[in-house]
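quick one, 356 residues, struct below
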Amino acid sequence: MTRPFVAAALAAALISLRLSLAQPPKGKDKKVWPADALNPDKIGGKELADAGDGDSDKAPVELVAVQTGVPQKGYRCAAFSPDGKYLVMGTTDGKIVAWDLRAGTLASANVHKGSVLDIKFNPNGKTYATSSSLGKVAVRSMTGGGRDLPGKDGGSPVIAFSPDGKSIAIGFDNVLRLQNFIDPTKAVGLQDADFDVTAVAFSADGKWLAAGSREQADGRVWVWDAATGKTASQLEMKGYWVKSLDFRPDGTMVAGSQGYGKHINLWNPTTGKLVRKLEQHTKMVNQVAFTPSGDRLISCGDDQTVRVWNPDTGAIIKTIPLGLTGRLNWLAVAPDGRHVAVVHSKGMVYVLRIGD
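---
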């Protein structure tokens, strides 16, 4: 009688353990990004070895999940849904792949003929926009359906939704358009917006729109009043073209990286003055992004590291080396501010825990 009883108790305990792993955290952490509920077994030896360039022991302890994925040619960009449930990834062969982070499942759809260059979620969480290497811009619903917005053949569009979800900024070669998303025939003309646009970002209150440029060897960053289209400031910078821009959520700071630059610029968007430079990367910085709280700035680059900064002091809080040959080209911060997704030049996506 003892053995059956023990076996039954053990089976019940195992079932309880599996159920607990499958459930999201409770109590004060019940809204934490559901990657916490991912089964560690979903990270296999091959993926860990990929993160360590053939040696799984070199994979960072911060690694939560890996997606080597559906597309034959790999991933190019990624964005978290506002509720943190999905990581939506764009591929080099025109697909969008939605990764359900709790279930660990993938769903894909063909959206573009060219490579997906950029992907942004509407703050309402119901739609997202993508741009392609053939100059096209598309808006799609998570439940299916969508529309194509006016593009520019041969361009390389960059995109950003306004915080209210009603407008979308689209930057092309020598064209920057602030377009009413509800009515595509409406657009706000932006003063002095006559350059090759390489990055765009809205302030969290929707008041300001910033755009970076490629001007031969040099770059510029302009800030506009999004309601009137009038130029508010030009950010002080020297060097190469602008790769990435992001506003601090409280609107007091803009972060930017530059082509061939190993540093990150932090500006005051009202005065246009450079506040400080962050210079710990050893190779080009490709992407920068603030956490939702604004107390951390995240970056990634050609030195295969993800770095966490204090933007108020310029101090580096954490460096996560992925031990990879190649580059980290893309960065997305999860809504919980504790996880990031980075896209490697070989087409893999890595999800990392950056804080508690």
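The helical segments are 2-22, 45-51.
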